[in-house]
Amino acid sequence: ACMLEYVTSWGMEKLFHARWWDYSHRRFNIQGRICLLGAIVFGLLGVLITDVIQPEVNRITQMIPLPVVHWMCVIFMALIVADTIITVLGIIDLADNLAKFSETVQAYAEKAGDSLQWGKDIFRDKFRDKVQDRVQDWSDSSQEILANMQATAASILNKQQRRMINAFPRLRFTDSIKYSKIIETLHEMLRRK
């Protein structure tokens, strides 16, 4: 399982120029792609699945006629392939859409006579005296800015891209600090919904 996680991390980084997860903050990691804690958890769950769950699944599947099992395998494989294709197609132009998002938000900021610096600190900087964990405590203008940024993100980033950004809180681009900062901003913005 750890070898699969390592190879997947490496492959996704090469394909999308982004680091989807990072265990660098954990002890005993290998290039931040895998860590000892993950290996232990995978190992324990592997034993649980092999010794406890698989015998039950085997007992149940023995009751299903073999042709039905074959069709189920074909259907599930088709679903996995379709899900993989939809995911890859959905995130393949993520960098381009982040650039569009950045340009659009910067244009709004320039119209307001401001310049926007990206990163999660944007909320502390922009709303310095109003930093609260709950959006309803912000001023109307701050809520309006946040709502405009959220609407802009929703119109530019597709559903799959928003889902992946939300699902991978440590997502970072390997070839663009700016895009990594934009991702940080989007994380913080989604957190404040």
Blueprint (SSEs and pairs):
Layout: H1 2-16, E1 18-19, E2 29-30, E3 34-35, H2 36-62, H3 66-91, H4 94-111, H5 122-126, H6 140-156, H7 159-167, E4 172-173, H8 177-191
Antiparallel strand pairs: 1-4, 2-3
Helix pairs in contact: 3-7, 4-6
Which features characterize this protein?
193 residues, mainly alpha, 2 domains, two-stranded antiparallel ribbon, 8 helices, 4% strand, elongated
Short description:
With 193 residues, the chain is mainly α. It has helices at 2-16, 36-62, 66-91, 94-111, 122-126, 140-156, 159-167, 177-191, and strands spanning 18-19, 29-30, 34-35, 172-173.
**Pattern of helices and strands:** HEEEHHHHHHEH
Instruction: List the total number of helices.
Output: 8
Uncertain stretches of 5 or more adjacent residues: 127-138
Number-wise, the strands total 4
Strand content: under 5%
Structural class based on helices, strands and sheet pairing: mainly alpha
Average pLDDT across residues?
83
Radius of gyration: 22 Å
Strands of the widest sheet, in order across it, are 1-4
